[in-house]
Every structure is written in C-alpha cells, then in structure tokens.
C-alpha cells in the first residue's frame, strides 16, 4: 500500500531541481501538496505542472531560514489541509567555491542558515502536526557531502554533516518515544540541477567578481559531477520513503563515497584532495 497516496506532503525549495521533481513524483503518486520556495516564478511553474498531474496544491513564498515565517507557515498548511503527513526539507544552496581561508563569514551564516537551520525550522515547526497525523514522515535532504569532506565546500559540508546528525537524533527520539513518525535522511550524489549555477548567479547579483578559476571549477562541476537527472533522483527518494528507509543514498557516487569513507575514515581526505586536483587542477 502506498504511504503517499492521499497524504499531505510539504516540499521546500520546490521551485527547481530535486524539489520540483519531488513535487511531480508525489503528485503522480496521489499526494496533496504544500509547495514553497523563495523563487516565486519557479514555484508557480512547479505548481502548474503538479496541478496538471492531478494534485491539489497549496503554494507559498517561504524563506526556510526565517524561523518565524516557517512556524507561521506550518500552522497555515495544517489549517489549509486539516492535517500534515510528510515534510521534505529540501531547500538548499551550495555556498561553495572557496577555501576556508577565502570564504567570508557571511557565506557561513547564509549557508548554515538555509541548509541547517532551514531543516531544523521545517522539522520542529511541522513535527507536532506530523505526530498528530498518526502517520508522519520527516525527510531531510543532506548530501554525499553529509559524510565526505571536499575542498572548497566547508560551509556546505558543515551544514550537510549537521543535517545528518540532527536527523539521526530525531529518528532515535521518534523510536524511543513511540511516536508515529518515520524519519529519513537523504544523501544525493551529483544531480543535474541549478545548484552550482545558482551560486554564480547569486555572487553576480551581489556584485561579486568570480575569478576565471572559480568559473572554470563551476563549469567542471556542472559537466562532470552533477549528472543524474533530477527526475530519477526524486523517484529514488520517494521509493525510499514508501519503503520506510531511514537512509537513502541517491546514485552510485553516493554509495561509493559512503563505503570509501567508512573504509578509510582517517585517510580519505588525502584521496579527496588528490581527486579534486585531478578534476579541477591545482588551486
Ligand atoms: N544537485 C545535487 O547534486 C545535490 C547533491 C546533494 C544534495 N543536494 C541537495 O538537494 C537539495 C535541492 O537542491 P537542488 O540540487 O535541487 O538545487 P536547485 O538550486 O536546483 O534547487 C534548490 C531550490 O531551493 C530554493 N531555495 C534556496 N534558498 C532557499 C531558501 N532560503 N528558502 C527556500 N527556498 C530556497 C531555490 O530557490 C531553488 O528553487 C539541496 O538541499 C541540496 O543541497 C543536491
């Protein structure tokens, strides 16, 4: 029996990439949807297609890093549908591209604000509603960078390692407390989305000049690492949710990296640095 059909599912960051495809996949499987994003144009396009797929859709502009807004949003979604079953805390940014030495303080605040606090906000705000539903599910999107460190991604890795820790604690608490809420942490590998290009667009919007090396790095990322279609990634995530998996790795790269890090926990940064140099050249 489907754990999605007829359920109310919340998806953050639904205006693009994995979040958009999660909305479509959930719509196809019969969910009712609460979709949000800071990008209202992208969100509108997702909502139109999800409705065309037959879903009932509620949309709202929501910045997941704005705690008060997320709390008010959770109450608004619960009031709209009368119940909330699933929340996909998906919205995220890369915050990457520079070494720890060169990353400014603001990038750490913004990246942790969206990727970590956004997930904490969405989880805590919706948790009472999920428990009240009697059949809840929290799905938090981490990354393969939730178990593997990679040069120039310190803010991103810090946020995604923390999402994993936060989500696994939540799972222990739901089990210990006997609450009717399943918990899944998702570790995607490279998925073809706007995430890397959005970093460049945001830097330009802030009037920042990116060096040719940074632009080249971004291009290689898009061409060589972000390869799985987002549609396929979303299918793997929702299959994992329907199967009640506590942990979903998306893609062979995520599975391989997971094994490598567990095999060589102290040595893998040497390999990670070597691979980075091979792929992107010397910094
Ligand atoms: N693409 C990959 O290879 C990959 C790999 C691992 C993990 N992920 C994770 O998957 C999730 C989705 O990313 P994606 O690849 O689809 O990227 P994307 O850039 O295509 O989509 C991210 C969406 O989040 C929205 N967003 C950004 N900041 C927001 C905020 N403060 N509040 C609300 N919405 C906000 C954006 O507007 C965008 O629509 C992220 O958490 C990302 O870290 C992606």
UniProtKB/TrEMBL annotation:
Superkingdom field: Bacteria
Question: According to the UniProt entry, what is the EC number of this protein?
Answer: 1.-.-.-
Pfam families associated with the record? adh_short (PF00106)
Print the keywords alphabetically.
Oxidoreductase
One GO MF annotation is: oxidoreductase activity
Endpoints of the signal sequence: none
Q: Does the keyword Nucleotidyltransferase apply?
A: no
Start and end residues of each Ketoreductase domain? 7-192
Q: Member of which family? A: Belongs to the short-chain dehydrogenases/reductases (SDR) family.
Provide the protein name: SDR family NAD(P)-dependent oxidoreductase
Q: Which organism is it from?
A: Geodermatophilus arenarius
């Amino acid at each position: 029996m489907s754990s999605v059909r007829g359920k109310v599912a919340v998806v953050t960051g639904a205006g693009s990439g994995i979040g958009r495809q999660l909305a479509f996949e959930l719509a196809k499987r019969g969910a009712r949807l609460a979709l949000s994003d800071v990008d209202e144009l992208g969100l509108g396009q997702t909502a139109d297609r999800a409705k065309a797929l037959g879903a009932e859709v509620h949309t709202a502009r929501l910045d997941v890093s704005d705690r008060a807004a997320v709390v008010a949003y959770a109450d608004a979604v619960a009031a709209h549908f009368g119940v909330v079953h699933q929340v996909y805390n998906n919205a995220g940014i890369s915050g990457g591209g520079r070494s720890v030495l060169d990353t400014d303080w603001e990038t750490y605040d913004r990246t942790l604000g969206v990727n970590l606090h956004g997930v904490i906000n969405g989880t805590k705000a919706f948790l009472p509603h999920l428990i009240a539903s009697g059949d809840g599910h929290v799905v938090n999107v981490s990354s393969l960078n939730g178990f593997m460190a990679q040069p120039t991604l310190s803010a991103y890795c810090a946020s995604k390692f923390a999402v994993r820790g936060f989500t696994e604690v939540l799972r222990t608490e739901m089990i210990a407390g006997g609450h009717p809420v399943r918990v899944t942490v998702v570790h995607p590998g490279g998925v073809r989305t706007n995430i890397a290009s959005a970093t460049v667009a945001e830097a330009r919007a802030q009037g920042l000049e990116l060096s040719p090396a940074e632009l080249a790095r971004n291009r290689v990322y898009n061409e060589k690492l972000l390869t799985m279609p987002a549609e396929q990634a979303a299918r793997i995530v929702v299959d994992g949710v329907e199967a009640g998996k506590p942990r979903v790795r998306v893609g062979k790269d995520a599975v391989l990296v997971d094994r490598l890090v567990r095999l060589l926990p102290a040595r893998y940064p040497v390999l990670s640095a070597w691979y980075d140099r091979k792929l992107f050249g010397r910094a």
